Amino acid sequence: MSENKEPQVASAPEGQKFVYDFTEGNRNLKDLLGGKGANLAEMTNLGLPVPPGFTITTEACKVYLDSGEAPEALRAEVSQHLDALEQKMGKKLGQADNPLLVSVRSGAKFSMPGMMDTVLNIGLSDKSVTGLAKQAGGDERFAWDSYRRLIQMFGKTVLGVDGELFEEALEQAKVAKKVKVDTDLEAADLKKLVRKFKKIVSDEAGRDFPQDPREQMDLAINAVFDSWNTDRAKLYRRQERIPGDLGTAVNVCSMVFGNLGPDSGTGVAFTRDPASGHQGVYGDYLQNAQGEDVVAGIRNTVPLADLENIDKASYDQLMQIMETLETHYKDLCDIEFTIERGQLWMLQTRVGKRTAGAAFRIATQLVDQGLIDEAEALQRVNGAQLAQLMFPRFDEEAKTEKLGRGIAASPGAAVGKAVFDSYTAVKWSRSGEKVILIRRETNPDDLDGMIAAEGILTSRGGKTSHAAVVARGMGKTCVCGAEEIEVDTKRRRMTAPGGIVVEEGDVVSIDGSTGKVYLGEVPVVPSPVVEYFEGRMHAGADDADELVAAVHRIMAYADRVRRLRVRANADNAEDALRARRFGAQGIGLCRTEHMFLGERRELVERLILADTDDEREQALGALLPLQKADFIELFESMDGLPVTVRLLDPPLHEFLPDITELSVRVALAESRKDANENDLRLLQAVHKLHEQNPMLGLRGVRLGLVIPGLFAMQVRAIAEAAAHRKNAKGDPRAEIMIPLVGTVQELEIVREEADQVIAEVEAATGTNLKLTIGTMIELPRAALTAGQIAEAAQFFSFGTNDLTQTVWGFSRDDVEASFFTAYLEKGIFGVSPFETIDRDGVGALVRSAVEAGRATRPDLKLGVCGEHGGDPESVHFFHEVGLDYVSCSPFRIPVARLEAGRAAAQSSGSDSR
């Protein structure tokens, strides 16, 4: 909010309650009170030391955002709760001699660390600052420090003043005093700083800093509402797939002060290590500070364990509260607290964000401790986390040049060019460069750069700093608090011990698992989780084996409960064998076009150029044994499991030379008068086959109908390969899939020819092959007439890549590069429909086709072989609509297995409720 305007009002349903005291709510009201408000209420109900306060609901925020005005009843409700708070505290908001001060903090249903606004010390003014000093036993420094903080926060957050102006003034004050940290500034210095801050506000905002405490509070509340729709908040929601219509609650809480001297302080604690999942004492503490100092990372903290030596009574009480909260929430808890002159206060708790490895470890630990069961453990992890665990890690045996070491905040092995601001990170990333974002400390304005970067490195802050918390939430590699590295963002360089200088553009490597920072590119090796899936690693005692053991336990449970089977998209024996090691239960898509490339392209050219039946049959005859050999290898590698072979799908021009290159070649040859007859025929064929939109032209089933013998050759190769395996005592389970069918008549014609070929092979080899024939559903018409098509098909496999293209009218290769970025930024897409199934459009057709197909043929086998088959959210949809299997690339098979188990456990839980 950048302009000065009186709070406006809007109407809302009569009798709607917009404000709840902390004593009225509970943790189940997150939709209404936001996560922070619901959990403050829960801690209050548990009898924990929470400063009194109240929460303004998300419903009030929605009214404000929809109309641009606060609800009409809100002011009166806030006044009522403020009066009650003042009576409870025995002082009034901002009164001159004994001021009540409050914080105004955001709190959405889902945690959005640092993305929305907070204002502390509301109620301070030129008059009440002396009253605050009196409350603090005459500590003028504390009072004026609190006042300068309010003006700085309020000016930036509420009045839209550039925060750098306040930072520059603060730096100038420290330089003038010849000190390095703000805690060394004295009361007189801070008084001058307050006058300077107030002038900055007056000059930049066009108004004076408000002296009326209620005006401060009302404007701060509206600013928090407005912060729901800031660019950084929208970007974060898109990144985390948080709905944009939830709104934020606002928490008004009586202030407690951690900046009252060495017996005061503020900190963040975790009931377990959010990076590893190990139990112990984890967190950061900062003496003589307010909470924003810890999260911002502007002063380096001490480990939470040091609090035991600083203030043992508060430490012991905090440990007891942490145990209470973890037992109550049955999960890792993230806690914010303040100590005010030896008195511990709880300011927030929430289920903490954690790394992927920590998620798996913690889930199994909680099972072992009897806090949750296996079904709940399965819900505590997800496929995206498992995919992170499968990324490579740095080779510990490689020769490296170490630059320094920081705090291992979020694991992973990240390599990229050093950049020192978010703009450059985004710009270089869009140009295809991999970058590491390096900052002294990050703030919410760095979010777009953090998303673009491979990893984040900061010289300040700890595991609870903004960089660490956001990176863990996004699954980004992060090293924080590398104090020995000096970061100079203005000169765009960093200097490591020994005088090693890294300029922007130099390659660096950061290890989020150890905190080590290296110069240059460090080689990577496979993840232990991948080695486990490959069968090269087993659970043991060390840290990596402990992680593998946790993954093994959760995967075993997912496999026991899931209904969906998981197959692989694989075109050769090597991919098939790897997929089988990863847990594939068959092949859901073997693309035969890959078998026509390389040295075989010449045979395809002969087929295309054939002028007579004899020429065409010779070309097909040459291809037959090659295809048969491919299928024999494939069936052997997947012995005993189904293998769905898709007959030739792409347009034939893809097997011919590029039209431009061929035209140039022919033109040059003609100019030399040594034209090649074959090139001339090829050029004629390329022109003949040229289509304006080949993906909607002569391809798929249409090829089988137009080119005599093509599909028959492929069916014969499949059948003869299956017969060969049977005679070798194998167990081939081949399924023949006809692509791009739009009408049942196409399928009937191809199937009649295929059945005849299969019968001939069975008679010739003396085998009973039991081959099934089905089709891909990848056109809207096929989905809409699925009941008819099921009369001729024994199975459907949804080709959701093409189905998405044809439903949306998108050419994937074109639109992703041209306007998808804009659609994502404008919120038209929450996620690309090629990444996650479009439930309302494409999904509706899939659901309809499933119902119609099974109505015609109750035993119809149903699967999906588009890329959505390995997408976690899409897997849940396919479970819901009743598919029998999903098929995906080998690397994504474990992810699909896990999500299929989670989908089954969720639906089972819903049924039981």
Automatic annotation (TrEMBL):
Active-site residues, Swiss-Prot/TrEMBL: H466 (tele-phosphohistidine intermediate), C865 (proton donor)
Source species, domain of life: Bacteria
Binding site for substrate: R591, R646, E778, G799, T800, N801, D802
EC number: 2.7.9.1
Keyword Metal-binding appears in the UniProt entry: yes
Cofactor: Mg(2+)
Residues given in the record as Mg(2+) binding sites: E778, D802
Domain PEP-utilising enzyme mobile positions: 433-515
Catalytic activity of the protein: pyruvate + phosphate + ATP = phosphoenolpyruvate + AMP + diphosphate + H(+)
Domain Pyruvate phosphate dikinase AMP/ATP-binding: 68-300, 308-357
Enzyme class: transferase
InterPro entries xrefs: ATP_grasp_subdomain_1, PEP-util_enz_mobile_dom, PEP_util_AS, PEP_util_C, Phosphohistidine_dom_sf, PPDK_AMP/ATP-bd, Pyruvate_phosphate_dikinase, Pyrv/PenolPyrv_kinase-like_dom
GO molecular function, one term: kinase activity
Keywords (A to Z) from UniProt: ATP-binding, Kinase, Magnesium, Metal-binding, Nucleotide-binding, Pyruvate, Transferase
Boundaries of every PEP-utilising enzyme C-terminal domain copy: 549-900
Family: Belongs to the PEP-utilizing enzyme family.
UniProt protein name: Pyruvate, phosphate dikinase
